[in-house]
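input
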Amino acid sequence: MSKKMFLMNITSTRIFASVSTIILAGILAIVIGCSYSANTSLSPSWQLYYAAQANDNQWSFTTARSLYAQARTAFTTEGNPTMADQCRNAIQRIALYEQTYPYTEAQLRPLLAAKFSTVPVSRIDGWFTNGSSLEHITIDGVARYLSDPPITDNIKYRNLDLFHAAGLDDKNFVEWLMTNYVNQPRPGPFDVYTNPKTFNAVGTLAVPRAKFPAEGTLRIWIPLPIVTGPQQSVAITSINPVAYLKVPPGGEDIGLAYMEIPLAELTTDLNIVVKFTFTHYEQHFTIDPAMVGSYDPNDGDYIRYTRSYGNETITPEIRETALSVVGGETNPYRAAKKLYDYVIANITYSLPPATLWPYGTPASIYVHTNRIGDCGCQSMYFTALCRSIGIPARTTGGKQMMNQGQYSDHFWAEFYLPNYGWVPVDTSIGQLEFYATGLSDDERKSFRDYFFGNQDNLRLIFQKDVDIPVFPPLKGGILYIPGAIQNPDGTCDTMDEDTFLGKLFLELDYRLTPPQSYWRLVEGP
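output
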């Protein structure tokens, strides 16, 4: 699937990345009350900081940005680099939101009129009056709308007539998958992993020297494949320049290579090349519900994969929905199938937010509230639904190469069944039948059902679950999408707030090069 993870958020709830800062702010707020700025017991730097937070929480970003900048200077003068970094992080987060929502209504209307020239003005008016049709937030008292892409893409995904009117049709893609996977004979019940494919991969990170400050340390985390059930024979063949490598490639739950580049020594453009090989298998689970074992609620993995955390947060409303969907079903296999069918039927595909946890709302809550989401958000919602009723689940991801050799970022879910293992689930691929014309009802059903318990061998796994912390841990700055390292991500200790987005923040993610050119994947012999 060529659909990518873009920047969206239609909720005004935010969860700050630094829990310690929240606690400290709450304690000080109790002590000093609402008139903290006039409290002479606080230093000027702290008064500025909490005045900035107050405006930040009200989405008064222009004032907040100015106050954070003043507080940062004051903290630096006082010799408090930790709080100076907190101010910089806040300014960078504000910049992320501003970059994500650049349009006023007056600016967006001409763009929509041009992109949808055959759509009546009255219908476009309806998109603005229906709050869930066009993603927006209020910044400085003005409604600001999502960038393009993805805002016009989402209009097409949510309106099939406009999707097809634009000449888009997933029929060829679906038929290719059906011919090569869905309609192929299934192996025997004990042949879970079959038809391995071996890939040789090259990743190239190239950034002009002018994008970086003269001095400072650039810290970069580069995703790499891990060994897991369907993915084996992983070998990192080279990482260059090796002098930048500070932590050897590795990790059981997320694969990363960590580099530090002393910018004072970087006299040419930055060029990092990573090469590796891996083998990926098809998966085919033939489940007998009567043979599913019992969970051990005291097992460490059971506790880990049924917890409420990060993008897979569980709320009472999510648990109530899960219980309503499964009804009286107690078999975890049958219950998970009901949840899979529910997500496919009720959650509309939509390009999702990068401003979720830890910058905003957890993905599971976002999807539950708005009934929209892409591969990652849908998988995180499915995971939260499963976990809420005691079925261990996780959101796995990296890349997929299903679109006839092309690749793109992708996430899917897995749930655990005793006596069987981790069973794959891919709701967004299952939904492709909605965007394909000319399929019979039987073809649509067989296509949907295949991606519950079966999976192709055209995958590259970087992480077993979302929200796994990077290693070594982040010590300042913020990462682009910290819960999903599918592309290189990084931070720099001397990157100032005014140039952060243009120089680094987006340069190290999918906007570094055309989306199809970062990883070059070639099937091996």
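quick obs: Residues 1-37, 498-517 have pLDDT under 50 and may be disordered.
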